[in-house]
Amino acid sequence: MEPMEAAVGGKAVDAYRKALATAASAAAYAVMARSMARELLPEELRAAARWAASALGARVGWGQRDRRTLVVRSQPSSTGAGADDNLLFEAARTYLASRLDPRAMRRLGVTLARARDDAGRASWRRLLFLEPGGSTFDDFEGVRFTWTCVEPTSSGGASGGGSKKKAKKGGEPSAGGDRDFVLELSFDAQHTDVAMDRYVPFVMHAAEEVEQRERALKICMNEGRMWYRMSLHHPATFETLAMDPALKRSIVADLDLFKSRRDHYRRVGKAWKRGYLLYGPPGTGKSSLVAAMANHLRYNLFDLDLSHVQFNTSLQWLLVGISDKSILVIEDIDCCCDAVSRKDDKAPPVRTCGRKEDDGGDDDIDDGPAPESGAPPPRTAPPPNKSNSNQVTLSGLLNFIDGLWSTIGEERIIVFTTNYKDRLDPALLRPGRMDMHIYMGFCGREAFKTLAHNYFLIDDHPLFPEIQELLSEVEVTPAEVSEMLLRSNNADVALRGLVELLEDKKEKKKQAVPTEEKQSEEEEAGKEEAASREQPSK
Ligand SMILES: Nc1ncnc2c1ncn2[C@@H]1O[C@H](COP(=O)(O)OP(=O)(O)OP(=O)(O)O)[C@@H](O)[C@H]1O
């Protein structure tokens, strides 16, 4: 290389280095400024800045090629054919309400609605929502999505929603008050597929879960062909349920697996349903377990009293009227069905065995499919039927469980309870009908500890060893133990009462043994005597 060329080349390299250094420090400043902004500026200020930048960008045309915005109106459009709610708008609002953090946002809409907690106590439900101009972001699969609430304009502009009063399902006022705001979802254009194919479905699904978690549960009871709906405020949960901890864990795991397996059931071509048979002595917690299941899954309960169902057709109407995400319970199935033998259509009709108790509530009525007449049928016996062929039979019930029941609706659980499993027709017990058989037994050591914790918030007490020793010797139901623990607010007094009950049972057990032995001795003696009496006549 010539000296002149070398000098020129050297200058060029120097200039290049300087440019590089300048660029590097500019980048460093940018990074520093961004991280300082992240640390020093509150999120809502940054979100507002982003929103302002994007609004300005949209005005002057910056980055228009790189950003996309989905406008989510509360209704499809003011000129649209249908006036149905836009499900994405409702879902987005519900989803955002569950994510908005009042500590991180300077301005936020809030409404309080009357509600009841699971124990039935009056309370308030808080709903947060973005106010016009408010913005928040959500990171999903590494992509940043920005939600912005836009004020409706009279010209229809971004909104076009007008000012119709919106009410959420169930009469709850819309979180945004009377005005129909518009939500805008913006993201980088390159992520349009992620937004449309995955993020939007994700928001829909997440909102559904939030709604399900927060909805008030119902218990529905049948009368004729209709379901009467009442609020369910059973406080039983898996935490309060006294039973073997391993069994409890396995039930919770089974329920969670069932709930998460929508795609699995579709793939294998099976109806998305699961059957549980709960059996065990009275007072061991079968009904409490059903309530705990409903509270855990947030499913409504449909308590089917077969003694009020006269015909297979009525049963059909009732089963078709059960909503998705529900638990159908038939209590004391051994009593309701003469289930000792199926014998197909010759099987005995369902026997009336009287309802255990009537809740007597009258919150509201769920018509389900329309009955033949508009009015609820009276709770009287049907006109005498010449033939039993149309009456509810066990095989009729089984047909609905495997037939219509399986195909209409999704995400359903059916629970049978019985005190006498051995009296049931094997047809009821075969896998596919009752997938899990759960024995609810007498109160064991761990179950007792749960009850003591429930009633007195104690995990230990000087009387525990004595009680646990006695529990291993006698049979006592959790209901009996609960009854004793309820008797006093003072743990010492209540536990002493329980010790007395258990000792009493132990004593009776001791006395019962000789009596039984004596009885069998007497029987033996009786037989011998009879035999000796017969001999002379031979
Ligand atoms: N395993 C349990 N855990 C907690 N509480 C229980 C349990 N078993 C019974 N109890 C208490 O006893 C009461 C009655 O229990 P529950 O009705 O659930 O028993 P059940 O087995 O369904 O009885 P039945 O067979 O007579 O219908 C409950 O309200 C609850 O207070």
Automatic annotation (TrEMBL):
Catalytic activity entry: ATP + H2O = ADP + phosphate + H(+)
Ranges of compositional bias, category Basic and acidic residues: 343-358, 527-538
Sequence ranges assigned to domain AAA+ ATPase in this UniProt record: 272-444
GO terms of molecular function: ATP binding; ATP hydrolysis activity
Single biological process term from Gene Ontology: response to stress
Top-level taxon: Eukaryota
Biased amino acid composition, Pro residues: 374-385
Pfam families: AAA (PF00004), AAA_assoc (PF14363), AAA_lid_At3g28540 (PF25568)
Keywords for this protein: ATP-binding, Magnesium, Nucleotide-binding
Cofactor: Mg(2+)
Signal peptide: none
Residue ranges, annotated region (Disordered): 153-177, 343-389, 506-538
Biased composition (Acidic residues): 359-369
InterPro entries registered for this protein in UniProt: AAA+_ATPase, AAA_N_dom, At3g28540-like_C, ATPase_AAA_core, ATPase_AAA_CS, Mitochondrial_chaperone_BCS1, P-loop_NTPase
Family: Belongs to the AAA ATPase family. BCS1 subfamily.
Name of the protein this chain belongs to: AAA+ ATPase domain-containing protein
Organism this protein belongs to: Sorghum bicolor
